[in-house]
């Protein structure tokens, strides 16, 4: 599991006095940065190796200003050229949101998906979601 902590900023709140639902997608993307570094250690945007294929977010509880959040990022599936992450946001010891993202290893010069290297698959495997591990 990868873990990132964020302070909720005032501008991330909305008229209902809780965090806007659009903010969560950004927190999840920031939480995936350690995974991005497995593919591109320097985060070289001129030679980027991944594309986002899909994402889904579920909101469990309201998220509030003034209390930090933790984004937990796991790998839930590894395929030939794609993989999925499962992420959770926690605030005050409660899971407030969760989501799934599918990312594809992509070669922009050929405009095609390409296989994920064995070494990177091995590194991704180290961060499998615990329920996935028991299903093996």
UniProtKB/TrEMBL annotation:
MF annotations from Gene Ontology:
fatty acyl-CoA hydrolase activity
CDD domains attached to this UniProt entry? 4HBT
Gene3D superfamilies xrefs? Hotdog Thioesterase
Q: Does the keyword Iron apply?
A: no
Q: What is its EC number?
A: 3.1.2.-
Record-linked Pfam families: 4HBT_2
Return the SUPFAM superfamilies for the record.
Answer: Thioesterase/thiol ester dehydrase-isomerase
Q: Which UniProt keywords apply?
A: Hydrolase
What InterPro entries does its record include? Answer: 4-hydroxybenzoyl-CoA_TE, HotDog_dom_sf
Which top EC class is given? Answer: hydrolase
Sequence similarity: Belongs to the 4-hydroxybenzoyl-CoA thioesterase family.
Protein's name in the database: Acyl-CoA thioester hydrolase
Which species is the source of this protein?
A: Aliiglaciecola lipolytica E3
């Amino acid at each position: 599991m990868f873990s990132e902590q964020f302070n909720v900023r005032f501008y991330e709140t909305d008229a209902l006095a809780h965090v806007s639902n659009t903010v969560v997608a950004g927190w999840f993307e920031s939480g995936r940065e350690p995974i991005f570094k497995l593919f591109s250690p320097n985060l070289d945007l001129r030679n980027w190796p991944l594309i986002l294929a899909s994402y889904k977010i579920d909101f469990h509880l309201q998220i509030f200003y003034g209390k930090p959040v933790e984004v937990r990022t796991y790998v839930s599936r590894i395929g030939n050229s794609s993989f999925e992450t499962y992420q959770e946001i926690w605030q005050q010891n409660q899971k407030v949101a969760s989501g799934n993202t599918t990312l594809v290893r992509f070669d922009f010069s050929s405009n095609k998906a390409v296989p994920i290297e064995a070494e990177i698959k091995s590194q991704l495997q180290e961060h499998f979601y615990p329920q996935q591990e028991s299903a093996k």
